[in-house]
């Protein structure tokens, strides 16, 4: 029982810790112009919100999500009776993939609807798009209602439908958090495994954050599948930027 409870708490709080540690590393790397997707100064010129407000917004959201997650875990808990029944590695891998698919599916349709519905965009999702030049710790800068709808409910669905244990959820939610932070890091670093393994990466999501990108690249956080199936996929090329670094340029004929 004690272990089970600590798994639940870790599943809730480890992703928060991981978020700040991983984005902290990117804060240290962010001055390296040669790997940036936008000039550093554009963080101040183009973004419509200060970093202080972003930090406050993310902390508020994480506090709300932690509260909801603790409640959800306690509602779905089986009292710790199955603590020692750990599934095989194959089953765990399948649960992980199912959770990725469920989270991707939920987030794609909710995210796309947030752009389609003008009221929801204006009052809720536009908050995230104040970051035209994304940076790592802005990844979860969202309206609290969006955090609840996309992240918390999406996370709860992927947990419940995949059937994973609270212990596995520690790794899944931490992984999803790292992936989301990486997609907003604003850098194209050599050897970044996420860039090699996922077509959905910091350049792909950067396109969505640009003013012309609001109709494309809704898929998040893992695969580009739904964008491809439903025709919202914007291919891009990574060009050298004058002044160092790179620029993700959209395929011109689609804009
Ligand atoms: Zn969006
Ligand atoms: Zn984003």
UniProtKB/TrEMBL annotation:
<dbReference type="Pfam" id="PF04116">
    <property type="entry name" value="FA_hydroxylase"/>
</dbReference>
<dbReference type="InterPro" id="IPR006694">
    <property type="entry name" value="Fatty_acid_hydroxylase"/>
</dbReference>
<keyword id="KW-0812">Transmembrane</keyword>
<comment type="similarity">
    <text>Belongs to the sterol desaturase family.</text>
</comment>
<dbReference type="GO" id="GO:0016020">
    <property type="term" value="C:membrane"/>
</dbReference>
<dbReference type="GO" id="GO:0005506">
    <property type="term" value="F:iron ion binding"/>
</dbReference>
<protein>
    <submittedName>
        <fullName>Fatty acid hydroxylase</fullName>
    </submittedName>
</protein>
<dbReference type="InterPro" id="IPR050307">
    <property type="entry name" value="Sterol_Desaturase_Related"/>
</dbReference>
<keyword id="KW-1133">Transmembrane helix</keyword>
<keyword id="KW-0472">Membrane</keyword>
<feature type="domain" description="Fatty acid hydroxylase">
    <location>
        <begin position="96"/>
        <end position="232"/>
    </location>
</feature>
<dbReference type="GO" id="GO:0016491">
    <property type="term" value="F:oxidoreductase activity"/>
</dbReference>
<feature type="transmembrane region" description="Helical">
    <location>
        <begin position="12"/>
        <end position="32"/>
    </location>
</feature>
<dbReference type="GO" id="GO:0008610">
    <property type="term" value="P:lipid biosynthetic process"/>
</dbReference>
<feature type="transmembrane region" description="Helical">
    <location>
        <begin position="53"/>
        <end position="73"/>
    </location>
</feature>
């Amino acid at each position: 029982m004690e272990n089970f409870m600590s798994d639940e708490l870790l599943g809730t709080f480890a992703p928060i810790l991981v978020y700040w540690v991983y984005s902290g590393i990117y804060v240290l790397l962010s001055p390296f112009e040669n790997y940036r997707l936008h000039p550093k100064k554009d963080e101040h010129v183009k973004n419509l919100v200060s970093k202080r407000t972003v930090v406050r917004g993310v902390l508020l959201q994480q506090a709300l999500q932690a509260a909801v997650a603790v409640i959800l875990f306690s509602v779905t808990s089986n009292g710790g009776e199955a603590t020692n029944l750990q599934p095989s590695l194959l089953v765990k891998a399948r649960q992980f993939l199912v959770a990725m698919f469920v989270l991707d599916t939920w987030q794609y349709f909710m995210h796309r609807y947030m752009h389609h519905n003008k009221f929801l965009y204006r009052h809720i999702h536009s908050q995230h798009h104040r970051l035209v030049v994304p940076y790592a710790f802005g990844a979860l800068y969202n309206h609290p209602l969006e955090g609840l709808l996309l992240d918390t409910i999406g996370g709860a669905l992927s947990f419940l439908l995949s059937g994973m244990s609270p212990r596995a959820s520690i790794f899944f939610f931490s992984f999803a958090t790292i992936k989301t932070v990486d997609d907003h890091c604003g850098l194209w670093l050599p050897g970044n495994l996420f860039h090699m393994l996922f077509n959905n990466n910091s350049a792909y999501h950067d396109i969505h954050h640009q003013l012309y990108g609001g109709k494309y690249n809704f898929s998040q956080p893992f695969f580009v599948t739904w964008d491809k199936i439903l025709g919202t996929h914007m291919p891009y090329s990574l060009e050298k930027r004058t002044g160092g670094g790179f620029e993700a340029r959209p395929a011109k004929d689609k804009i």
